[in-house]
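Sequence in, structure out.
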Amino acid sequence: MADIERRRTLDQDVFSGFWTPLLDWDADTLAAWSRRMTSLPPDVPYLSLHGTDPGGDYADWLADRIPAAVAEQAPKRTHYPHLAQPEWFVSRVHEFFSLDRS
């Protein structure tokens, strides 16, 4: 838990790097970037694990862009599911990538 608490301190470079496109780009540029980042062949497995609820329409939005995508929320709400719930996180990754998709 101390590691999680330490990570609550904001790193300005990380913050700026993440939010600058959302705050500075116009809607068309942001939409084009989003389409490029999510342009995967339809059979590519994609697991989207979230520690907090990404929003009611996120799973549909993601499936529209990446048909094979699976979006899940951690059992306990946290910004760091890989740290706060490592057993759950690792088991989901192993389970997802061990599925026979043939």
